[in-house]
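Protocol step 4 of 6: record predicted structures for both targets in the notebook before any analysis. Target 1:
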Amino acid sequence: MIRNCFIKLQILILAAAGCLFTVSCSQIDVYEKHTVIPAYEWQNSFSATGDFLITDTVSAYSIYLVIRHTDAYQYNNIWLNIGLQPPGDSMYIQKVNLSLGDDANGWEGSGMNDIWELRKLLNGEPRRFKQAGKYQFTISHIMRDNPLLHVMSVGLRVEKIKN
């Protein structure tokens, strides 16, 4: 009786491990890159840059800005220049005023101790990329402070929307 229970337990563990292996090996259609801000002092001449590859122009994507800052960041918002360059084209730069929180409700996003991370949707609703290829991006701040203190990292996240 105990031996049968032990064998059933082993089979259950192997089945669970197999399911976990299958799930962990499935492709996640997400690109995310963070650039660490040196010494948490963001110079206005410093840009976070990166590139991502789009192969599927039929699916829609959501584009998020991801920013990490400390509790000591002194503003409720941040002004950014966000550039996106399609393959073989010019860089398109958009000026964005990103709300990070307010005095009544505190910081947006998730926090642990004095570190806050916020993921903000940039493109409103999911959109399709018109052409396949490598897209480049840049993110720089356009605040009056130079350096802008207490920003830890900034990055971009591109998620393919599942149908």
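Target 2:
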Amino acid sequence: MTIRALQSNEVDLCRMLRLRALADAPEAFGVTYSEAVFYDSAYWTKFIQSFTPPSKQRMLLACDGDVCSGSVFAMLDGERKDAGRVGDMWVDSKHRRQGFGQALLDAVFGWAKENTFGELWLWCEDGDNAAHRLYQKAGFVYSDNRDTTREKIDKDLIEMVWTA
């Protein structure tokens, strides 16, 4: 397994991975497969530009040979200059519990250190015990924040924070 950043010329790979993630875990993301499948190439080009240089944000990929089977977003925090966010983590069900998730998080931690972020935060679905275990094992702790306003799924979100 290798972890690498998505490249600006990999629009088709980005689209394919996002659609696989949305099909595999429809309740886990803020957009649905049935919405994203109709996004045009201009959307995907703009999307990829937000996660490749010169942007500081990254879409990190977990690949087994030529096949990418996991991804995560390493994002800037819109309100704080000393913090980042972890978003839309996904590992193909065939590769779960094989270290892909931890390797992706380790890459995000490296990105955070490069950007001198002292903190990362993420939202995790209440009841997603496997994700909670992964994040806790990686050093995330629960904050007091919850989000109960999501319309597309019926689960609450719990904020988790990692401190460098």
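Step 5 preliminary note on target 2. The chain is about 30% helix and 30% strand. The chain has one domain: 2-163.
Proceed to step 6 after PI sign-off.
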